[in-house]
Amino acid sequence: LPDTSNANTEFTYKFDIVKLNQINVILKGSGAKMLGTLSIGDYKKKEYNVRISGFYFDSKSDAILIQNVRKLEITQNTFNKSNRSIYVLPESKETHANAMVEVNKNTFNDVNYCLFIDRDPKASWMVSSDFTFEGNVANNALITAVYANGIDGLKYINNVIFTPSDDKRRRFKKNHLRIDQESDWVIVANNNFFESGEESLYFENSKAVNINGNNFAWSGQNGIFSVISVNGNKSGLLINVTGNIFDWFSGSVITTGKG
What we know:
The chain is mainly β. The chain has 1 helix and 23 strands.
């Protein structure tokens, strides 16, 4: 990509997909508009030390793809109307193949998913680990803000997440965070969560979850749903819920059960 460090210069790039598999790279957009998909990584797990900042991703497809990437920072970008703004592909079976990924201070405008962490059905739930989702704003997350099909470590803090309230789009919205399969070492703290369609937070087989200092407003608008739901049939499941504020909800504050 050309040098876009001059803030007074505007660039627009239209493409299907651009692939990056080089390490120690800084991509700085300074507002450059990206009309396509940026793919990071390949078939081999490695530490990338890549930073992506300052871009405006404007595409209805997936904006950033991640495959076998360790040490990646995605910060201060704007994602507009993408399907899965940041999509971790289900291409690896190695433990911690996707790890130490920081998603910080981004803006998500009318996207289906801000962060979607997928997994091959034959892979361990620990194929992705140690993700951070911090200081982001979603206006709006149309389905689920953050989804993970299993994860070994997630820090979800200091975000503001809105979902649509209009009649046309509200029927599709679900969660602010959903983790299926299994997880551990999850922190959800100091977020403002508005108007989930179903549970605001949903966990399966979560071994260690801390939920503290969050504001939950008008949760479960598409039926009778708990604000926080913890399900699973494995032993040693632990959850700590402290210091949160709950303002209107359609079901219970917390439910636990087997699923």
